[in-house]
Amino acid sequence: MINLILCGGCGTRLWPVSRTLMPKQFAKLFDGSSLFQGTVVTNSVACESQYVISNAEQYFLAKDQLSELPECGHDPRFMLEPVGRNTAPAIALACLSLDPNAVVLVSPSDHVIRKKEAYLKALEKAEKFAEEGSLVTFGITPTSPETGYGYIEADGENVKRFVEKPNLEKAKEYLQSGNFYWNSGIFCFKVSTFLSELEKYAPDMFIACKAALANAKKENQLLRVNYEDMMAIPANSIDYAVMEKSKKVKVVPSDIGWSDLGSFDALYGEYPHDEAGNNVNPKHIPVGTTNSLVIGQQRMVATIDLDKMLVVDTPDALLVAPLASSQKVKSVVEKLKFKKSPLTDVPQTVSRPWGTYSVLDDNERYKIKRIVVKPGKRLSLQKHLHRSEHWVVVSGTATCTVGEKIFYVRPNESTYIPVGEVHRLQNDGKLPLVIVEVQVGEYTGEDDIIRIQDDFRRS
């Protein structure tokens, strides 16, 4: 069985922990591990390989996190989407590039599954149904009348209908009936079965996906889809395009300790708590505080006489709200987007294929960064039209290209790059290179980069 891992999402529901460039599946929320890593580890027990569907910005982030999981022992395939067109095209493009007889397990990368043994038993049952020619969905046994989930009505293992997110009254009815399940967004089927049903019920999408795959760039384990071809594919979810129309759908009822972590309220339930009901956090000093979620890993956060509150402290944004109102975070994100704030997109520390950079200060006409370059990696050969740069090496040895000169800069030494000068930063050593970069100019945005040569094929 092949695990198709969907890595879409724009990181709005858990803002400011998650951002567009650091969506929740990659944020290390649990003991230094991410939801993406948890998905890989859990499914690697039942699947012989992974096929990660991501966008170009998240590709190297996913590769880095996979490198931290040597126990999984797989070299996964990747498909990079230049723009998202929802789940049906993503799954279709991946399936079109696989053996028609292969069985795939489609799983979101940002869900939690606590009951691993029950999950593996559900997978065995689903794989059997898939081999017999069914499209399988996993129905989560509901524990409360949730209005934030879609529902599946079933007659035994046969799906009668899919239901949109209900109001509270309807959700209570569904819970009492005993034949409704939460729609998990996890699927299992044979490649040929899915593609046949897609061609039957969404022919325009099927044709557009075949055309896009024919033009896609194939590089070993990497598939890159062209922007124009991706935009030509009708956008739709797998539920609307296929699952709600097909007559071959079966459901595997699943009590697997599942959560989609769609809010901080849901996240609160996943953490261990102290005797007062607060999540355990060594950076939190509670005084009279109870039943609260306090997230922050850098500054010490003190709270006094709070109950059922949410406090999320990040280096560049602070969120405070009643825990029960955490679903309204998306309204904050909408307001920030209206103001064109970078806070919705960029976390303080940004991952790049060569390492990371952290913005330490950002003001009019200057920006200060901490840059970490991995051993054996280098930034693109580039120039800037609106800023000069000053590099100060903190640790390691930098191989610097400035114009026609190539030279070394060691700890407590520095170099200067004038506006418009071609330059490159490189780490030829065996330890991480750490520098402080001071940018000065009329504009210091990340789009003021003209790449001349790049090891990672970025434009």
Automatic annotation (TrEMBL):
Limits of the MannoseP isomerase/GMP-like beta-helix domain: 283-336
Gene Ontology MF terms: GTP binding; mannose-1-phosphate guanylyltransferase (GTP) activity
Annotated EC: 2.7.7.13
UniProt cross-references to Pfam families, sorted A to Z: ManC_GMP_beta-helix (PF22640), MannoseP_isomer (PF01050), NTP_transferase (PF00483)
Domain Nucleotidyl transferase: 3-270
Gene3D superfamilies: Jelly Rolls, Spore Coat Polysaccharide Biosynthesis Protein SpsA, Chain A
InterPro entries: GMPP_N, Man1P_GuaTrfase/Man6P_Isoase, Man6P_isomerase-2_C, ManC/GMP-like_b-helix, Mannose-6P_isomerase_type2, NTP_transferase_dom, Nucleotide-diphossugar_trans, RmlC-like_jellyroll
Any one biological process term the GO annotation gives: GDP-mannose biosynthetic process
Keywords: GTP-binding, Nucleotide-binding, Nucleotidyltransferase, Transferase
Nucleotidyltransferase in keyword set: yes
EC class (word): transferase
Catalyses which reaction(s): alpha-D-mannose 1-phosphate + GTP + H(+) = GDP-alpha-D-mannose + diphosphate
CDD domains for this protein: cupin_PMI_typeII_C, GDP-M1P_Guanylyltransferase
Segments forming domain Mannose-6-phosphate isomerase type II C-terminal: 345-454
Keyword Aminoacyl-tRNA synthetase: no
Family: Belongs to the mannose-6-phosphate isomerase type 2 family.
Protein name per the record: mannose-1-phosphate guanylyltransferase
Native organism: Hallerella succinigenes
